[in-house]
Amino acid sequence: MALTLGMITTDSTDPVPLAAWWAGRFGAEVDDPYGGEFVFVRGGSLPVALAFQKVDDPSPGKNRLHLDLGAPDLDAEVERLVAAGATMVGRRGEEGFSWVTLKDPAGNEFCVAGADEAAAEL
Fold it and tell me: Domain segments of the chain: what residues?
């Protein structure tokens, strides 16, 4: 039997606003059937659901799993994300393949590459 990816889940001390922030980035909808304890983000341009689970004490340090996103216009997308509340960590890579690392409002790192560059790496 082969595994399938059901969703990507992030721990959060306050999952509802974090889910809403991510929903806004993907044009997706927030579904909160468990009263803020486990919140889903579905639809929009997401290929799978994102989930945000309430925890009292999130894991310390750098997150070991992160989203790698693609955008047709990298600079415009980074500008849009920062204007929406993301924090720039830095530009990475080299000529031919570069990306930008950012943090969401809860401090979780994620990366954005130009869509053509990201597809070429697959």
Answer: 1-57, 65-122
CATH class as words, domain 1-57: alpha beta
3-state helix, strand, coil in the chain (%, to 5): 25, 40, 40
The answer to whether 55 and 36 are in contact (CB under 8 A) is no
CA distance 14 to 31: 15
Per-residue pLDDT reduced to its tens digit, 34-86: 999 999 999 999 999 999 999 988 777 777 778 989 999 999 999 999 999 99
Whether 105 and 85 have beta carbons less than 8 Å apart is answered as yes
What is the residue-averaged pLDDT of the chain? Answer: 88
